[in-house]
Amino acid sequence: MVSARSRSISATHYAAALLGCSTLAGMPLAVAAQDDAAPSGSQQTPAPVPDAPDAAPVQASPTPAAQQEGEIIRTISVSGAQRLEPETIVSYIQLRPGDEYTPAAADLALIALANTELFADYGITFNETTGVMVIEVEENPIINRIILEGNRRVDSDKILPEINLAARQIFTRSRVRADVARIIELYKRQGRFAATVEPQMVMLDQNRVDVIFEISEGPKSKVRQINIIGNEVFSDGDLRDEMVTQEDSIFAIFSSNTSYDPDRMAYDQQLLRQYYLTEGYADFRVVSAVAELTPDRRDFIITYVVEEGERYKFGDVEAVSQLRDFSSEALSAGLVMSAGDWYDAELIDNTVEGLTETAGAFGYAFAEVRPRISRNPEDRTMDVTFTVADAPRVYVEAIEINGNTLTQDKVIRREFRIAEGDAFSSLQVRRSTARINSLGYFQENFEVEQVEGSSPDRIILQANVQEEPTGQLSLSAGFSSLESFIFNGSITQNNFRGRGQTVSFGVNYSRYSRSGNISFTEPKVFDRDIAMGVDLYRQDYNNGYFDRDSATYEQATTGIGLRVGVPLTEYISLLGRYRLNYQEITLDETQFFSDFDGDGIRQCEPLIAGRYLCDAIGDRLQSIVSATLTYNTLNSGVRPTRGTRASATVEVAGVGGDTQYLRGRLNASRYWNLGSGFIGSVSVEGGYIWGWGDDDVLLTERFFLGEGQMRGFDIRGLGPRVVRRFYIDENDDGVLDEADLLDIGDDRNQDDALGGNAYYMARAEIEIPLGSGARELGLRPSVFIDVGSVFDVQRPTLTQSPLPDGLFLAQLDGNGNQVYTQLVRDTAGVVIGSTTTLSPIAPDGSNNTRAGTQLTPFVEEFVGDSISPRVSVGFGVNWNSPFGPFRIDIATTLLKERGDETKLFSFNVGTQF
Fold first, then answer.
1. Are 473 and 488 in contact (CB under 8 A)?
2. 740: closest CA among 748, 731, 751?
3. Regarding predicted confidence, which is higher, 473 or 374?
4. How many CB atoms within 10 Å of residue 44?
5. pTM for this one?
6. Helical pair 345-361 and 426-439, crossing angle rounded to 10 deg
7. 822 - beta bridge partners?
8. Confidence category of residue 56, pLDDT binned at 50, 70, 90
9. What pLDDT score does 67 carry?
């Protein structure tokens, strides 16, 4: 019997063959037996197992020149097959019964078996006596499951679909090698070039195996350095600023562009070329761009080799029009570049876009503008000719609305400034896009798409919308020295029932104030350009001016408001409003009223409550009519990036009711796209209120500024106020003098914010772009400066001594006696001491029945009534967090007046549904 088992390979060779692939070099493949009865996840100690060449094709060994003649194969049988049919295995080789058996033929058969990658071990034996050839095989195991370990940065559900191996497939070495390479490639896309993958397998019964990929992710590879060679005109720093990729440094800690990305590197080359072309270097080119991995495989060093070339100027520049409505001379005269200017490729692109928009505004939707550039190397000039090709005038064939599941079609169609059958106008299409964006119902940066119609002079406008949540649950909380804890909440649905209607409910709660409101707005009454709305509201305010633990007065306002708005032009609208308020302002009579005059009429005591509060007490019916004229060109009402909004409001109280005043307000804001993702905005506002008839302007009607309007200041934190500075005998020496008078900013003092009849305010803000990673998180930081002031109020009568004789009234003692504190002053009027007396009789001989909290000696000061600006600067972050929009502001004051109250930190949070 002749044995041909020369190609049979042991199991240890199988492991060595698996380790032979380049991606697995140095990585052991452990194999262990595992009983099915073992607990899930348990694994025995891996042990080496026999090896088999189930991947690479087996090459036949050279056959000697002198070869012994073979015997005839009478039968072929298969031994060791489990899943495969013997006939199938025999079909893989070329030998058949009746063929001559030779060592060369056996080698070719072994090669065929190896190429199937189905067997862990295989061999051929031949019996010369009987002519029986036996194919002995050991089938590759079946994969029971694929296990990934160590992958924290890339989820398993992103890796498993990318690899070839899967449960119930046959295990092969080539697939393992390919899957390891694929997993490493996935990590390279994440910027982790130091990632390694070590495959392991655990043998189970019934020739099954668990394949385990042990992943070491390694650190994210950063760009350690960017080198530029060959640049002479511009510095390395200038060119790096033009690139998206950034060097890893402490200043780029929040940037996601410090990791190596081949696609980003290719884009940077385009940016370099674009930058040089805008500066006139038309021959610029990037000779080479190489990214080298550092020896520790942690970072990359990128090197660009560039050739700048010569700088060019514009030569002859003209525009040629083939459209009958445009003359070439007029278009040429409107070009922004002229001969002798430095060549700028970006200017050419902008001119093409501008000419295309101009043609589109006159109905030529498909007008094509072709720039022809002629290079003159002799005098280094570039001649440019813009040709506006002939095109048919286009009309709107149809307007299609797609993607809206909740919003009704008519809500979108009524925002179009162009109708089916109208001549096409790119200006009207842009305006329609802006109006739809301003609804806030759909995806950001929505654009109306233009599709060719049934003929060359027809166009179809498509609004392919993606609906966004239009309901908003807003929550904000804060803390202030005046209001203590503050909570605001509101629920708003801006697209109620998909009809574009707005329904909202809001509540505000703090230590001293509570309010609630319900409103409804119909933007298109009977599908006409008339908006109507109704508001119901209740506001309660308890102000702790004198004693922070109790209220000095209570203000309750219950009202209803009606609104009607009509557009006057495309950008100008008029809003009329009527409000009817019932206002109640009361003080605690047991604390702040007296019958000291002896006539039995209880009166508010300005000594304790303050004169302005005493003036405001009472019940009033307010009938208020107002009108607002608005000019609005913002591209979005939710998050504008360009445009202007200005409004003027006139408000008259006194058409009926008990209050009479005239109030005027102006405000305006402007937004700019500053380029490179920066958004700038400036806003200004101001107002004045006049009391007419016999009424002065009450405290409750004046303007106030502070948190909510000007960052960096507390609620009602700036403007006119009366500060009551107390004498505190800190040294406990029984003598009160100027040294015992608290500083004006001391929290133990009491201050009454009086507001003002006039105010102004301005703010400037720049939104700063971050990397793509931060944008994906919804982070939008900004820096700002706020300027403003509130002023112009009649100077109050200040109290240096509560009663003419210096007596301070105190509460009743345990015996029913009144307690008085007598201040002792020197000849200059300075308090030098105090005494306390008990008497049921007031100094004028009458009974004094006033009761109240004992008053500490004090001096009042009137501060803050100044037109001088208050200035604050700071930075904030808007974050579209998973639980809703979140805003944080940190601001510090640069300019303030005596008595102003500042605040460093504020935030609010909300969510959408």
1. no
2. 731
3. 374
4. 12
5. 0.56
6. 90
7. 807, 835
8. very low
9. 40
- Cα(264)–Cα(272) distance, integer angstroms: 12
Cα distance between residue 215 and residue 342, in whole Å: 55
List the structure tokens of 347. Answer: 């200017």
Q: What is the mean pLDDT of residues 150-176?
A: 87
- Tens digit of each residue's pLDDT (9 = 90 or more) over 521-547: 998 888 788 999 999 999 887 755 434
- Confidence band (pLDDT; 50, 70, 90) for 37? very low
Q: Is 737 exposed, middle or buried (0-12, 13-18, 19+ CB in 10 A)?
A: middle
Task: Give the whole-angstrom CA distance, residue 284 versus residue 273.
Answer: 7
Distance, C-alpha 655 to centroid of its chain? 46
Region of 119 on the Ramachandran plot (φ > 0 left; ψ -120 to 50 alpha; else beta)? beta
**pLDDT of the residue at 595:** 52
Q: Say which residue, 549 or 208, is predicted with more confidence.
A: 208
- The phi and psi torsions of 658 (rounded to 5 degrees) equal -110, -5
Q: What is the DSSP string of 19-50?
A: HTSGGGTT----B-EE-TTSPTT--PPPB---
Distance from C-alpha of 503 to C-alpha of 142, rounded to nearest angstrom: 62
Report the percentage of the chain scoring pLDDT > 90. Answer: 29
Cα separation, 88 vs 891, whole angstroms: 80
Residue 828 pairs with which residues in a beta bridge? none
3-state secondary structure of 800: coil
Question: What values do phi and psi take at 541, rounded to 5?
Answer: -135, 125
Q: Are residues 264 and 244 in contact, defined by beta-carbon separation less than 8 angstroms?
A: yes
Alpha-carbon distance of 889 to 904, in angstroms, equals 8
Average pLDDT over the chain, rounded to an integer:
79
Residue 320 above 70 pLDDT?
A: yes
Closest Cα to residue 690, out of 673, 703, 681, 680?
Answer: 703
222 bridge partner residues: 259, 299
The C-alpha atoms of residue 473 and residue 548 are separated, in whole angstroms, by 32
- Stated as kind and residue range, the H or E segment containing 149 is strand 142-149
Contact 243, 260 (CB under 8 A): no
Of 885, 449, 390, 301, give the one whose Cα is nearest residue 639: 885
CB atoms within 10 A of CB 739: 11
What's the DSSP call for residue 698?
A: P
- The percentage of residues in the chain with a pLDDT greater than 70, rounded to a whole number, is 76
Sign of the torsion angle spanned by Cα atoms 837, 843, 847, 851: negative
- Reply yes or no on whether the pLDDT at 234 is more than 70: yes
As a whole number of angstroms, the distance between CA 437 and CA 422 comes to 22
Total count of residues recorded for the chain: 913
Q: Which residues pair with 507 in a beta bridge?
A: 489, 516
Spell out the long-range contacts of 60-66 with Cβ–Cβ below 8 A and sequence spacing 24 or more: 60/104, 60/107, 60/108, 60/110, 60/111, 61/6, 61/107, 63/103, 63/104, 63/107
Question: What is the SS3 assignment for 707?
Answer: coil
Distance CA 459, CA 415 (A): 19
DSSP conformation letters of 544-585: -SS-TTS-SEEEEEEEEEEEEEEESSSSEEEEEEEEEEEEEE
Are the C-beta atoms of 802 and 809 separated by less than 8 Å? yes
CA pair distance 812, 854, nearest whole angstrom:
9
Tokens of 900: 């102003």
Closest CA to 541 of 521, 514, 560: 514
Distance between CA atoms of residues 530 and 522, nearest Å: 9
Residues with Cβ < 8 Å from 243, sequence gap 6 or more? 226, 268, 271, 272
With bands split at pLDDT 50, 70 and 90, how would you rate the model's confidence at 9? very low
Strand 471-480 with 484-496, pairing: antiparallel
Q: By C-alpha distance, which of 431, 427, 399 is closest to 413?
A: 399
Q: What is the DSSP letter of 294?
A: -
